[in-house]
Amino acid sequence: MTTLPADTESAGSEASCCTHEADALVDDDTARELARVFKALGDPTRVKLLALITASAEGELCVCNLTEPVGLSQPTVSHHMKLLVEAGLVSREQRGRWAYYRPTTGALTQATRSLTG
Question: How far apart are the first and last CA of the chain?
Answer without folding.
Answer: 40
